[in-house]
Amino acid sequence: MSLDKILSISGKPGLYELKTQTRSGFLAESLLDGKKVSVSARHNVSLLSEIAIYTTSEELPLGEVFNKIMDKENGGEAISHKSSKDQLEEYFFNVLPDYDEDRVYASDIKKVVQWYNLLQKKGFTEFVSSESPDASEEE
Prior knowledge:
With 139 residues, the chain is α+β, with helices and mostly antiparallel strands.
């Protein structure tokens, strides 16, 4: 499973794994409770592989941010997304010191930490596609 198959659906909690395409949209399975949901084309859906975090110099793909969190935590769980705004910002600064504080809000940090912890609990450890030249050289 790669981030190409993991979805965030606006208005629905947690993350979803893309299962199959249907005539009117697609079928996804919740990573929280395993329930399958039908998602129509009118829902606002984001693939995690398409999301990036603003830094002072570039946009860093979410998979690379997840890898930085995983390195910091030695593959373990990050702090709780329910931590205070100041704790979340300090934690994120330790993970990604050059994140753009003007464009990355506390709510964004909360979501990134929550998503990382959910994926980590599900045993997901490959956040960057193995097709990218950097990832295959490191492994």
